[in-house]
Design brief:
The chain has about 350 residues and is mostly helical. It has 11 helices and 2 strands; from the N terminus they run E-H-H-E-H-H-H-H-H-H-H-H-H. Helix 1 runs antiparallel to helix 9, helix 5 runs antiparallel to helix 6 and helix 8 runs antiparallel to helix 9. The chain is globular and about 60 Å long.
Length: about 350
């Protein structure tokens, strides 16, 4: 049995009998006695998750200001609120793309239970759309423009495209063919990549790097969350749960390679080496790299435990910790998109 509460506690487990892959999953919504017993363990994880959520909110609100302190860089109006909104947007992309990816990993698992976790994709997409709309309102307020005039600006137009794309993705997620959401989500990622690279120096190359980086990060983060929720639901079938985690781990290696390659290339083109410690961008990047190092250690440890132990509970615990740290990485990544571009420092006379 896995320790700690489920990521989707309202969905109980089913008997571990195998089901043919052609049989559609059944979503369980009732509570049964097979859930975790009340006690200290059942409260520990929710409290830790709540504390992590508060920490993430504080980092989003105050992170840009702390990173820019003493750098002499221009102050970004409403940076904290923008970071919160962008964190919601990135989380929405991760949740939705993860739900589109993970079922492809689940279907080939032999002897898997006939249960599936509830979909959060539509809710996530709507939250992301609201976050993009919130950025439009903030941009209008900062620029002293009307909403309609804001739509006419480059950033406002791209944010409107992102918001509308996520609304369409939510409608697709709620339909009988949720895979159709891939098209509007691709538009959203492309628009976000263009929005994040308004600079005059090779913006097309920067946008292409961002498309790959954002897609890989979303698949890694959202896919892991869906896999962890499914593993908890399958806690009565450890063989199937272990097989699912193994399939995800093999894919995660390639996602990690894509993240490392695009992240390195983006850093080399955007961050002059002489301002790594004296710019908000450089300092934020160092924090992100430190968190990614922790994620890497947890991922390797989870893989080793999975290969060594027939019971996947230990690997599941390590992967849950990896997920929490990945959540902080999402917040820090949002901070990174809000702080000033460091090139202006190196170009000063």
């Amino acid at each position: 049995m896995f320790s700690g509460p489920p990521a989707d506690p309202a969905t109980p487990t089913m008997p571990s009998g195998g089901a043919p892959s052609a049989v559609p999953p059944v979503v369980e919504t009732s509570r049964e006695a097979s859930g975790p017993t009340p006690g200290r363990r059942s409260w520990t994880a929710p409290l830790l998750l709540g504390a992590a959520g508060v920490l993430a909110l504080l980092v989003a609100l105050f992170g840009p200001g702390l990173m820019a302190r003493g750098t002499g860089e221009l102050r970004i109006p409403g940076a904290g609120l923008t970071t919160v909104l962008r964190t919601v947007l990135f989380a929405a992309l991760a949740l939705h793309l993860g739900e589109l990816l993970a079922p492809q990993l689940i279907r080939p698992v032999r002897g898997r239970p006939r249960t599936a976790v509830r979909s959060w994709a539509a809710y996530a997409a709507l939250a992301g759309a609201a976050a993009a709309a919130g950025q439009i309102v903030r941009l209008a307020a900062v620029s002293d423009l009307g909403i309609t005039e804001t739509y006419g600006t480059r950033e406002g137009g791209l944010l409107l495209l992102i918001s509308n794309g996520l609304v369409l993705a939510a409608l697709c997620a709620a339909s009988k063919r949720p895979a159709l959401a891939l098209a509007p989500l691709a538009v959203v990622i492309g628009a976000e990549a263009l929005r994040a690279h308004p600079e005059a120096y090779s913006p097309e190359f920067g946008a292409a790097l961002t498309v790959v980086h954002l897609t890989a990060a979303s698949l890694w983060t959202g896919g892991l969350l869906y896999v962890l929720r499914t593993m908890w639901l399958w806690r009565g079938s450890p063989v199937a749960a272990r097989a699912l985690l193994g399939r995800y781990a093999r894919l995660a290696v390639w996602l990690y390679v894509a993240l490392a390659a695009t992240g390195t290339a983006s850093t080399l083109r955007r961050l002059p080496l002489d301002v790594v410690f004296t710019s908000a961008y450089g300092r934020t990047l160092l924090v992100k790299l430190a968190l990614m190092a922790v994620v890497s250690v947890l991922a390797v440890a989870a893989r080793r435990r999975m290969l060594r132990d027939a019971d996947p509970s230990a690997a599941h615990r390590l992967a849950r910790r990896e997920q929490v740290v990945l959540g902080l990485v999402v917040v820090v990544s949002a901070v990174l998109t809000v702080v000033p571009d460091p090139h202006w420092i190196s170009l000063r006379p």
